[in-house]
Predict the 3D structure of the following.
Amino acid sequence: MRGVTEAPGAHDADPPLLDNLMPWSVAPLRFGRSWIAAPDVRTLRARWDRLAAAEGDERDALFRPSRARTPASAVAALPGQRTGTARWAREPGPCPEPVRIARGPYEEQWLLPDHRLIDTARPELWRVAGAPQLFAVEQGYVPGAAGPALLVTAALPEGRSPAGRPGRIRPLFRRPGGHEPNLAPGLLAFLGERYGHEVDAHAWLAWTVAAARPSPAGCRVPLPEDPEVWAAGVALGRDLVDVQARGALSGTRPRLPGGRRPYVRAAVPARPRTVTYDEGDEALCLDEGRISPVPAEAWEFRVGGMRVLEQWFAHRTAAAEPGSLEAIGPAAWPQEWTSELLELITVLALLGAREPERAAFTTGTAGTAGSATREELRAAGILPPPGRARRPASVLDHQEEGPEGQFMLL
């Protein structure tokens, strides 16, 4: 639990912090061992089988024990997951069904959802994951870095920023099923009165994605006086959220306008080593493999100052320690990776094309003119949010399996 306390009257001209408007936030997950996540499911199952077949010191070395987890650790199951709770060293059980996670900016991978393998899994996030939940992932502050300060995903996010700086994960809803928005009490009513119509949680998230601006204290969110400015930001933000969440709101996967779409012009080799961009041909080059058209906006798109496409490629081609579980992977570049790359290019191209519009809200005065001050929000009883708003919602009627098969009531 974290709360940023700003003294009353101090810097009231600055927009309020997202931390006070979406009070419940969770620190990033900490896996503790990188082999439990991978870009494809087959790799994870092969790693599990290799570990389960090992014995004694070899098993310990492959597991990579930490202070939080060893093969002898006894822990509860992750909420919603059917995995073993017996000590792994005694009874590994079958390989759990991998789940989709957001591993980095706009990048989805797979995770073995076994609590015995994860140092810090943040069970409170697993309890509220699943449609229609969306997660806003606040990026760690990097002075002068290009790219959005707030990302949105429908998949459970790991939550780490590209440059390794800590961020925060903010679920849109505090309860499963899209119940109880994770917002300061009274905020939606305040916005509804300010703009003359009902404002819901999705409109709030859309505005925040369009207008949130980074600061050393965290994301700040201006609340403009002009209803037309608010409406324009919400319209932009809805499009950005839907693209980032891969069509979770519209039900349609992202597509470039005008029927334009990237294609594989030359096959990706079995083990590409480099990724470059040919600006003249709008081509992404993976060694001799070529994909085009790739708009320059997609290639140049950055988060935390780091190019997203380069990071995506590095996560699939980085060298691993020989003999380790991390070294187990596909013998050749899988077709599914190419399909995911084509979709990622589309996502980044769509987002990059809207960056000038977003910049008008985040760096200009469009979103701050007449912005609600923190004094106004305090007078309305919105700031500071109550302590309970910073804590996970209670679950009183759901049993979860504890260590060694015992049940616990939350």
